[in-house]
Design brief:
The chain is an alpha+beta fold and 373 residues long. The protein has ten helices and 22 strands. The protein has helices at 9-19, 35-43, 53-60, 62-71, 87-97, 123-138, 195-211, 251-258, 262-270, 356-368; strands spanning 23-24, 47-48, 79-80, 101-105, 114-117, 143-147, 152-161, 167-174, 178-179, 182-183, 185-188, 216-225, 237-244, 287-294, 296-297, 303-304, 307-308, 312-313, 326-330, 337-338, 345-353, 371-372. Strands 3-6-4-5 form a four-stranded antiparallel beta sheet, covered by helices on one side. The protein has a four-stranded antiparallel beta sheet with strand order 8-7-12-13. Strand 9 (178-179) and strand 10 form a beta hairpin. The longest helix has 17 residues, at 195-211.
């Protein structure tokens, strides 16, 4: 189980000391957003390749981060982000906001600890259910309540900061295609995005990062309301959702459209170097899409599937962990075992094309060449 393996960061520190390692890159798993691990690295004189423990803590608690973002002038969905957690008070706040509302675990993530409530009489039961899941998953039953945005899109901004106080945004990723609040497809740039909206969201994301003196790679996630659909981009409104204080699973699509290596940027920043480029030097080239390949059973409500990976065939022409027209990042091999203890995602397929239509066609062809049994 995770708590008996990679979450035992004391073992990682022991290995780092034994091998003379100067730094630790936490990847994009749970340890990458664990302020205790980041602090332990600092205390041991080992560089944690990521933000400071204080930034991780500030952005890790959803309610606290919302209060910080409000002070920084970042747009927020109408809601309640207070410390008082009496059920009667939460009920009154939900009634004030107006239904439907979304109850979210303050310490949550990954789609856990979330409930949509359509009417007032359903609130108490939904709150109790959400709090039970939150305490089991995160050790805290604190929640926040927000207006549930209709016809939402999930658009996030990749940001970077360095130790000299410089910040840039590396454009957006659209992660609206989800199942059970888990991302399935991610693409960049976002369809229908205007230059004006891109700049507004990018600057808001940079303000969010600056508010916590952020250093390294981070992602600021926004809920985007587009009541007029794709034909009315001028009607788009965006609201801060959360900041992920790490490299994202979907970072390869940003690498594809910018031509940059984000892990290299992380290492340079961790060494104390300034950001390699300024905002006016960054450009978008083409269109990229990532598909998460998961070990799930579509005949059983897409529940995780485990066992031996008997067949694992990939497209004949592809790269691994580096930019190309067809890229596959994976951590499994044919004949290996799919464990029940970890996330069901076993690979990521990333394609890049000159246009969105070309990228979609390339994705179709590449997926057709992937065979898994």
């Amino acid at each position: 189980a995770p708590k008996d393996s990679y979450l035992r960061w004391e073992k990682i520190l022991e290995a780092a000391k034994a091998t003379g390692a100067e730094a630790v890159h936490p990847g994009y798993g749970f340890l990458s957003e664990n302020e205790a691990f980041a602090q332990a690295c600092a205390d041991a004189g080992i560089v944690f390749i990521g933000p400071s423990p204080s930034a991780i803590l500030a952005m890790g608690l959803k309610a606290e981060s919302k209060r910080l973002m409000e002070k920084a002038g970042v747009p927020l969905v109408p809601g309640y982000h207070g410390a008082e957690q009496e059920p009667a008070l939460l009920q009154r706040e939900a009634d004030r906001i107006g239904y439907p509302v979304l109850i979210k675990a303050s310490a949550g993530g990954g789609g856990k600890g979330m409930r949509i409530v359509e009417k007032s009489e359903d609130f108490a039961a939904a709150l109790a259910s959400c709090q039970r899941e939150a305490i089991n998953s995160f050790g805290s039953d604190a929640v926040l309540i927000e207006k549930y945005v209709q016809r939402p899109r999930h658009i996030e901004i990749q940001v970077f900061g360095d130790t000299q106080g410089n910040y840039v945004y590396l454009f957006e990723r659209d992660c609206s295609v989800q199942r059970r609040h888990q991302k399935v497809l991610e693409e960049a740039p976002a369809p229908g995005m205007t230059e004006a909206m891109r700049q507004q969201m990018g600057e808001a994301a940079v303000n969010a990062a600056r508010a916590v003196n952020y250093v390294g790679a981070g992602t600021v996630e926004f809920i985007v309301e587009q009541t007029g659909g794709y034909d009315a981009p001028e009607a788009m409104k965006f609201y801060f959702m959360e900041m992920n204080t790490r490299l994202q699973v979907e970072h390869p699509v940003t690498e594809a459209i910018t031509g940059l290596d984000l892990v290299e940027w992380q290492l340079r920043v961790a060494c104390g170097e300034p950001l390699p480029l300024k905002q006016d030097q960054l450009q978008i080239h083409g269109h990229a899409i990532e598909a998460r390949i998961c070990a799930e059973n579509p005949d059983n409500n897409f529940l995780p599937a485990t066992g031996t990976l008997h067949v694992y065939r990939k497209p004949a022409v592809h790269t691994a962990f580096q930019r190309s027209r067809v890229r596959i990042d994976d951590g499994v091999r044919e004949g290996g075992e799919i464990s029940p203890f970890y996330d069901s995602m076993i690979a990521k397929l990333i394609v890049h094309g000159a246009t969105r239509a070309e990228a979609l066609a390339r994705l179709d062809a590449a997926l057709a060449d992937v065979h898994i049994v």
